[in-house]
Amino acid sequence: MTQQHHSDLHALTAAYALHALDAVERDEFVAHLAHCEDCRREVSGFEATAARLAGAVGRTPPEALKRRTLAAVEGVRQLPPRVPAVGPAASLAQVVRRRAVPLALAASLVAAVSFAGLAAWQHQENEAARQQARQAEERLEAVSGVLAAPDARTVHGRTANGAVATVVSSDRQNRAVFTATGLPVPAEGHTYQLWLDHKGTMRPAGLIHADGTVLLDGDPADATGVGLTLEPAGGSRQPTTQPLLLLALPA
After folding, report:
1. How far apart are alpha carbons 143 and 157 in whole angstroms?
2. What pairs with residue 177 in β-bridges?
3. Do 124 and 131 contact (CB within 8 A), yes or no?
4. Domain 3-57 is of which CATH architecture?
5. pLDDT in tens, 49-58
């Protein structure tokens, strides 16, 4: 196997994880995978990220919803109705009927108000869930598009704190994806921030909190590299710490 061909096999980790290889490429890569620990870690990271993104698309309604609804219904105290004094001639059946009608009406109103509120709350929850699902689908499609792009180029590096980092970029998609494996969990109140190096100017490119894959923000077309720093939670406008990684992008 030539050195060039060996390097090409390293670039197939993302496509393999997404089942985007043809039969010949897959057989060659599987044989390579048995002897390459770095590629095995990358494939594991890509597969785990794809599974998390796919899982975020569906959302099961909260179990607490039923408990809150039943508790609200049982906890509603109904006041006794005001019933005019009944004369001696009134029968027991008339009294029961006069009492039953306001009680039934009150119960219906309470139920209507309770379920109207519940329906509004559930609608808001469902709408939020649908929005999250749409965003997760869009992220998954964008990441998958870069990883499976015919012109995808891959570079590897290792961060100062020992994580394996991979950047996959596509000129055709005009996007880049960053993957980290073995990234230590940052201290409370901090997060990892990605940067695109535009001729010495570092521009924010998104946050990553732990192992996984993220789509870089910004335009990578004119970027010469990708950086990673540890920043306060929420990120910074400019790097405030020494870079953990500076990875040159392919020209």
Report:
1. 20
2. 168, 215
3. no
4. Orthogonal Bundle (1.10)
5. 666 555 544 4
Q: What is the dihedral of CA 221, 225, 139, 182, to 10 degrees?
A: 160
Cross-strand pairs, 197 = 202, 225
Give the strands of the sheet with 153-158, arranged side by side: 153-158, 164-170, 175-181, 212-215
- The CA-atom distances, in angstroms, between 130 and each of 50, 56, 87, 165 are 19, 10, 60, 32
Is the pTM of the predicted complex or chain greater than 0.70? Answer: no
DSSP symbols for 33-90: HTT-HHHHHHHHHHHHHHHHHHHHH--PPPTHHHHHHHHHHHHPPPPPP--PPPPTT-
Kindly write down the DSSP assignment for every residue of 79-140, as one continuous string: PPP--PPPPTT--HHHHHHHHHHHHHHHHHHHHHHHHHHHHHHHHHHHHHHHHHHHHHHHHH
pLDDT in tens, 67-112: 666 565 555 555 555 555 555 544 544 544 444 445 454 555 445 5
In the numeric block, which tokens belong to residue 150?
Answer: 């015919």
The rounded Cα 234 to chain-centroid distance in angstroms is 17
